[in-house]
Amino acid sequence: MTEQEIIARIQHIFEEAFNVSAPAPQTDIIDAALLDSLALVTLLFEVELQFGMEIPLESLEIDDFRTIEKIARLIG
């Protein structure tokens, strides 16, 4: 799966799970107030479900979730 395909799937998660227009891949979703602590948990769950992976909480860095591009790199 290419990085662009991963980005598109993550953007779809935003639209479906949070009922908001997906932000641009470079948008800081924390500074834009699109991601609070509850939304982060939901996002983690949806990413793990959609991509069939587990993200260990002990290795989780909040900076890895600042943009959709960074989330895509984490997955890819």
What does this structure look like?
The protein has 76 residues and is mostly helical. 50% of the residues lie in helices and 0% in strands. The chain has three helices and no strands. It has helices at residues 3-17, 37-51, 68-75. Helix 1 (3-17) packs across helix 2 (37-51) and helix 1 (3-17) crosses helix 3 (68-75). The model has no long low-confidence stretch (mean pLDDT 91).
Task: Give me some keywords for this one.
76 residues, mainly alpha, 50% helix, 0% strand
In short:
The chain is mostly helical. Helices cover 50% and strands 0% of the residues.
Can you summarize the main beta sheet?
none
Q: Indicate the proportion of strand residues.
A: under 5%
Pick out the low-confidence regions. Answer: none
Shape: globular
- Output the helix-strand order: HHH
Mean pLDDT: 91
Q: Can you count the helices?
A: 3
- Give me the Rg, rounded: 11 Å
Quaternary state of this entry equals single chain
Return the structural class.
Answer: mainly alpha
**What's the end-to-end separation, in Å?**
8 Å
Number of strands: 0
The proportion of residues forming helix, as a percent range, comes to 40-55%
List the helices and strands and how they pair.
Elements: H1 3-17, H2 37-51, H3 68-75
Helix pairs in contact: 1-2, 1-3
